[in-house]
Specification:
By secondary structure, the chain is mostly helical. It contains three helices and two strands. A two-stranded antiparallel sheet has the order 1-2. It is rod-shaped, with a radius of gyration of 24 Å. It starts with a helix and ends in an 18-residue tail after the last strand.
Length: 82
């Protein structure tokens, strides 16, 4: 079992650091990019529970969409009844 783990982690190679960056270490960049995309998504979505819309209006430092915050709605376009 330990030998299988070493082989799939990239440990037995030409050098310990080369083997790490060619094995498990190469996935660190992908995990970082996925984390950054998820962080940006959750930062900019509407902060109402369960809403997946982009919060285009900031009210008191928190993003909300037009549907979930009256202060964020544009009242001059005649779309109050929708």
């Amino acid at each position: 079992m330990l030998h299988w783990l070493w082989v799939h982690a990239g440990i037995p190679g030409t050098g310990p650091w080369y083997a790490f960056w060619s094995g498990l270490g190469s996935d660190l960049g992908e995990v970082t990019l996925i984390g950054a995309v998820l962080g940006m998504y959750f930062k900019h979505t509407c902060h109402d529970k369960g809403c997946w819309r982009i919060g285009r209006h900031t009210v008191n430092g928190t993003p909300f969409c037009n549907r979930h915050h009256r202060a964020a709605r544009n009242t001059g376009t005649g779309s109050e009844g929708q």
